[in-house]
Write a structure and sequence with these properties.
Layout: H1 6-22, E1 30-33, H2 58-70, E2 75-78, E3 87-88, E4 91-92, H3 93-103, E5 107-112, E6 124-128, H4 137-140, H5 144-153, E7 159-165, H6 173-182, E8 190-194, H7 208-223, H8 232-240, E9 250-254, E10 257-260, H9 275-284, H10 288-297
Parallel strand pairs: 1-2, 1-9, 2-5, 5-6, 6-7, 7-8
Antiparallel strand pairs: 3-4, 9-10
Helix pairs in contact: 2-3, 7-8, 8-9, 9-10
Length: 298
Amino acid sequence: MRAIPGLKALTFYVPYAWRFFVLRRPEPLIYGVAPTDRCNFGCRGCRVANTGRPEMSWDRLVETMRSAWRRGFRELYFSGGEPMLWSDGGRTLEDAVVEARRIGFFHVHVYTNGTLGLDTSADLVWVSMDGLPGTFELRRGDHCRQVERAIRANTHSRVAVIYVIDRNTADGIEPFLRWVSSSQLPVLGVMFYFHTPYYGYDELYLDAEERAPLIDRLLESIRAGLPVLNSSAGLRALQSGDWPRRLPIASVVDVEGESVCCRAADYVCRDCGYAVCTELTEFQRLRPSAVRSMLRYW
């Protein structure tokens, strides 16, 4: 994210830091909004898109963000579906980003597949890219070069990549990282998640024993200077399972209601692959690598 904007944020974060780092209180901080489940992709491993649920209206979206702010949340992100598809009465996602800042959220992030462009004033845009051509298609279809062009054409947004590791994309990790580096893709780096079986276990799922050597490869990639955004501490926590589920400082809402941490059922938490959760946990534990990593995109 961009630098913390102003005195209001500083006034909030100084006492919050004491409660977060020292007292370890589970107070609200990060709020996610999925205003639509429509998506122009049909990714393998996704069951939250194109379900036919109605979209949030503008009025409901605004009231949802206001309610979150009143309850103490100060960081906000938009996801989906594909959030760039959302609109209501002429309002678009960019209007929602602007409104979130007007309400008082310090930073706003957007999670997108990148094919609709990156035209947003959000503080950071997370773009999904699960490998190079030949690997990317196995999860997201034949859109890799289209996403690359959108990232390279972007002129104002800060961008980072999310790469989901599953059984089909695992072999593409190092080639993708080397390509990001050698081609000078204009991104902060690559955050790696593991496929999370929130809709059930299938051939994409990798269990803890299978994840372990892949995490070792990511750690080696960090040591080699490749552009991995995950911290060493966060990856080791993901490997060991030593982190709390659900993460109490985060919530997410869609048209059907609000959930703590994510929209998956409780039984999925044991096999969660959302690495940002371990990053936040290790950040709270003040692990140096997690602090350094977090400051790159916070």
